[in-house]
Amino acid sequence: MSTTAPETPTQVAAEATIGVETTEGSVVDPAREHRGITGAQSLVRSLEAVGVDLVFGLPGGAILPLYDPLFDSSVRHVLVRHEQGAGHAATGYAQATGRVGVCMATSGPGATNLVTPLADAYMDSVPIVAITGQVASGFIGTDAFQEADIRGITMPITKHNFLVTDPAEIPQRIAEAFHLASTGRPGPVLVDVPKDVLQATTDFEWPPRIDLPGYKPTTRPHGKQVREAAAVIQAAEQPVLYVGGGVLKAEASDALRELAELTGAPVVTTLMARGAFPDSHAQHLGMPGMHGTVTAVAALQKADLLVALGARFDDRVTGKLESFAPGATIVHADIDPAEIGKNRKADVPIVGDAKETITELVSALTALHEQQGRPDLSGWWAQLDRWRETYPLGYDLPEDGALSPQYVIERLSAIAGPDAVYCAGVGQHQMWAAQFVQYEKPRTWLNSGGLGTMGYAVPAAMGAKAGRPEATVWAIDGDGCFQMTNQELATCAIEGIPIKVAVINNGNLGMVRQWQTLFYEGRYSNTRLHNRGSGGGEIEPIRIPDFVKLGEALGCVGLRCERPEDVDATIAAAMEITDRPVVIDFVVGSDAQVWPMVAAGASNDDILAARDVRPVFTEGPV
Predict the structure, then answer these.
(1) Residue 12 pLDDT greater than 90, yes or no
(2) 465 and 552 share a domain?
(3) What pTM was computed for the model?
(4) pLDDT digits (tens, 9 = 90+) for 419-440
(5) Strands laid side by side in the 445-447 sheet
(6) Does residue 126 sit in helix, strand or coil?
(7) Residue 73 placed within a domain
């Protein structure tokens, strides 16, 4: 996935704050020294020096020495209710702000509770630094109380990790962790520090020297490859710009718009790229993939050229890989060379930062247009527009008058607007939020794309709101996801982080139920989340838990909405509350399904616009 280059404003600011001397030289800030301090004090001063303003964490025995100097620090600490919440909050902070998120936990179970958010951040290329306490050095390997080999456990799911054995190394390791997390392809970095190292006496010197042999991400693309890509774009009759989350990481949205308008090509934005290109733009076809728009999926299948920018040909986009975009030449630009050719052979591979690559493509294409004129894509657009007209994204209202989840999310988007930040958990509500919220700006859509982590939304929204207090932040959650991490609402209430939560409550694990409906003959094994009353007359749900009362117990305002005519007023009421978190229990029907859909393992040619409705584009070539 193409990602933030060191030359972006975010990275320049970060490096200026760090003031680090790299192996290539150049010191930004004057040196700061402190003699005869503890390793814990050195670590806190290192965090201050790299510009950390916020840490999410939970103390415990092994990391307790670090919490004492943190008490006097300028760094704000948010005390979470579970370490998983700290990790997801750091991720939400990073995704919403573009800065490195930071979380802390103690040894053993504290550290292992960070495994899921670390894996989540690794899959979605999110820059976070996790600091964990470890048992004293002499106890490592003895199965001591609350010992866990967190380095070994997280090695496959971190960009890099460190075990600090010498307190003198602390400033260097912290500087290196932040450098690694935020440069090249971003990702999580873990720093594990034994308790005795935190307690030992050391000297603090800043800036340290970063020494990472072999780590030198390629950010500037090769000119020959860019020129070759420009030539195939110029020659294409049915091109598509296939945009992934790397464009957002590289702060390349403006450059992408310039490229799109220069080429006149249609744009599709993956689940991780929503907001990278305005939904309202005439060239935007929507999201591709398993639950993408018919037009976006059809365009990829029938394209003669795919220009993949910061995307990784994920299985949820390609469907059955062997039948994906069978007639397309592939231009694949990515900052991570390991991604190029991993799933789909690239005819024109480009290793580099997305922003630099797109900028150079614009220059090369402008020169070609001056020499050869602009390609005529009118025939391609005529076909695309026919698909858009025939298969618009929509939904049916329930015949029994129940509240439609798609309608709730559509109205939430209209009322909260494009400046709000939307966080989603995983499942049906995630797909509806990706489909029916109008995304116009970068960093307004946060979700767990690669790992698909239930329970992501509430703590991620907490992190986003803490990082961007001026923004309205909505967590769109399912009743299943919400019950995994809602305890962080207590954190929000106590810490003054007034997020808003829309619980799409269908009483079931909705996406699993949908699959059971479609592929398991309606045998709903263990997907119902609450019992229902029995006996004659109308069947009423038994609300366990009652989300309104639960929200109130956690220090929030609790609201409930069960009728379509009350949706706007309920959302408006929530928008007026700015001093506390708000939880809205939207009680919706249990049978709504996400469409369009490509079944797992099926070809994108087999997309269904709705149940048993197959688009005609699969019947033959354009």
Answers:
(1) no
(2) yes
(3) 0.93
(4) 999 999 999 999 999 999 999 9
(5) 445-447, 421-424, 473-478, 500-505, 582-587, 557-561
(6) coil
(7) yes
Task: Specify if 616 maps to a domain.
Answer: no
Looking at the DSSP bridge assignments, the partners of residue 305 are 239, 329
Is 83 a residue of the active site? yes
Mean pLDDT confidence for 517-530: 92
Which residue in 15, 83, 169, 339 is the catalytic one?
A: 83
Asked whether the predicted pLDDT for residue 14 surpasses 70, the reply is no
**Cβ of 239: how many Cβ atoms within 10 Å?**
26
Q: Facing residues of 194 across strands? A: 134
338-350: pLDDT as tens digits: 999 999 999 999 9
Q: Are 20 and 53 in contact (CB under 8 A)?
A: no
Residues in the chain: 622
Q: Are residues 379 and 243 in the same domain?
A: yes
3-state secondary structure of 131: strand
- Residue 242: enclosing H or E segment and its boundaries? strand 239-243
Give the integer Cα–Cα distance in Å for 92 and 161.
21
Active site residue 146: yes
User: Which residues is 610 bridged to in the sheet?
Assistant: 613
Tell me if residue 145 is catalytic. yes
Distance of alpha carbon 296 from alpha carbon 287, whole angstroms: 6
Identified catalytic residue from 48, 146, 562, 575? 146
| Catalytic residue status for 428 | no
**374 and 467 share a domain?**
no
Contact 612, 532 (CB under 8 A): no
pLDDT over 70 (residue 17): no
Specify the CATH number for the domain of residue 496. Answer: 3.40.50.970
Catalytic residue among 272, 287, 511, 597: 511
H/E element holding 54? strand 54-57
Judged by DSSP in three states, 621 sits in coil
Cα separation of 323 and 606, whole Å? 10
**Residue at a domain's end among 174, 206, 238:** 206
d(CA 208, CA 198): 18
Residue with tokens 């090369």: 364
C-alpha span between 357 and 334 (Å, rounded): 9
Q: Do 246 and 188 share a domain, yes or no?
A: no
Strand (E) or helix (H) holding 533: none
Number of structural domains found in the chain: 3
Among the listed residues 159, 195, 355, 500, the single catalytic one is: 195
Is 511 catalytic? The answer is yes
Residue 486 within any structural domain of the chain: yes
Instruction: State the residue range of the domain holding 480.
Output: 405-533+540-587
From the list 145, 224, 345, 372, the catalytic residue is: 145
